[in-house]
Amino acid sequence: MPEVTYYGGPKSGRKATIGSPPATEAAGEGRAYTYNAQALGYFYSSADVTSRGVLSVSIADFGASTDGANNATAIQAAIDAASAAGGGIVWVPVGTWTTGPLVLRTRVSLRGAGSASVLKLRSGANAHFVTLADANTEECGLVDLALDGNKDGQTGSTWDVVYLDNTGYDNGRGLPSPGDPSHFAERLTVTNAKRHGIHTIGSYSGSQFRAVRVHLCDGTGIRLASPDNNVVDSVVASSGTFGIHCVSNSNRIINCKVFLSGRITGTSGVGFYVQNVSRVDLIGCESQDNRKDGFSITGCSQIHLVGRADRNGLGPEPVTGYLGDGLFVQNVIDSRIDLIAGDRAAGADGNVGGGVTVMQRWSYNSGGGISGCIVHIVSGTTASGTHGNGSFGATSLVRITHKGTIVTNT
Question: Which of 111, 114, 151, 187 has the fewest Cβ atoms surrounding its Cβ within 10 A?
Answer without folding.
Answer: 114
